[in-house]
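User: Teach me something about this protein's shape.
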Amino acid sequence: MRILVVDDQASARRYLVSIVARVEDVEVREADSLASARAVLATERFDVALIDLRLSNDARDRDGLVLVTEIREKTTALPIIVTASHEMAEIRMAMRLGAHDYILKDDLCEELVLPLLAEIRTRERLEREVRELRARSASEPPAMGLVGSSRPMQLLRETVRRAALSDRPILVVGPTGSGKELVVAAIHAQGPHPDEPLLDLNCGAIPEALMESQLFGHERGAFTGADRRQDGYFALVRKGTLFLDEIAELSMPLQAKLLRVLESGRFRPVGATAVARFGGRVVAATHANLSELVARGQFREDLLYRLDVLTVPVPALAERTEDIPALVAHFVRQQPRALRFTTEAIDLLCCMPWPGNVRQLRNLIDRLAVFAEDDQITPEVVRPFLASNTETEKPVTSLEPIVRAILRLPVENKLAAIQEALIAEAMVLCDGNKSAAARLLGVHRKAVERRVEKGLADDPSRVDSAAPSDGSPRGAGSPFGPRSGC
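Assistant: First, the predicted structure itself:
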């Protein structure tokens, strides 16, 4: 810290210098008049100026105020501390001109001067950090939607930044609802070709027979119904990013073909003789443990090694609960209502386990925006919504009560009716996603597909046969429990 001491009295300067010399890493320059102060300021830069308001024995002297005025006309970055006897009018004038603070000469001591200098040093450090952060944020592309300042989120942003610079395949892993899609969007935005397309394909939402055509495209007449040529995602993405969501749901034959594309950068549309080149990048995502699937023979080990070169793990919300206030503010800004969460309500949210991660928190804010009576959200307002949201998440420790309720149903073939009802309910909860419904039921996706193809799960009249005959609605009172998100 460089300090300029301006005072016409040598004894006063020596006393001030002896005080400020106690500051760590300090360098002090002295000036005894307006002219000498001007000369020093013209050639050197200072962090603080200590200026006596009277620089002579003349009571009419105003050189100190003149110096304050001249400094402020040139810069506001130099803090000024003025010293004076008891000329309060001149002190008020100096403060209006832009002095940072003042000290009466009769009170001049270490206990007053050093805290002022420490405060100025702290303020300068904070201002410097803000400037550096602004410069860094201006030079770096935004990590879209990655809200939070916790250590896991800082690590995630840094991992995204580094991974985006490479053109190698990237595997994004994390629990359901943690925001893997936002991570992929951030990778694309910070990659070498952010202006190229970002195309996403859910590997579990498209039938296997159509998946190959979606990926590779097809020629006219390649199969029944192919009445025209169609480009696949590998061609449409150009130099952009192809996002393969739920990569664990990709069939084994298509896994082999995907592996060849990743290794050679070439692909062949269905029914074509010519080979096309893939110039983009593949980003895959999954919530499944691919190593376990490899051990069970449900995922190719060589494809895992090819995808697992750059892995981006997305933390669960339970690992970054300190981000919940920022996430709540982010989701509230997206609502048509100006919700106001009290500190106690935020503390309550921070104590929740959030098995559904950020998606569950966002859904809670959406429900509050629709159903809350008042804009001010207190713990009393939040608790009923949390209770309804977590009731179905409690593990079922025994099937006996459910079995007894099923056996009391007035249905002739209870096993078939319950199977159909379970599949239908799972499809509703998972918005028609067969893979998600299969995971919810704990069965293979093919079992759900066969039932849906037969029309069992899509026929409301047959599904309703499993409902109670008294006309009571399916919900908290039914053996299947209330509906909730998948």
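Now, about its shape. Residues 400-466 form one domain. DSSP finds 21 helices and 16 strands in the chain. If you'd like, I can walk through any region in more detail.
User: That's plenty for now, thanks!
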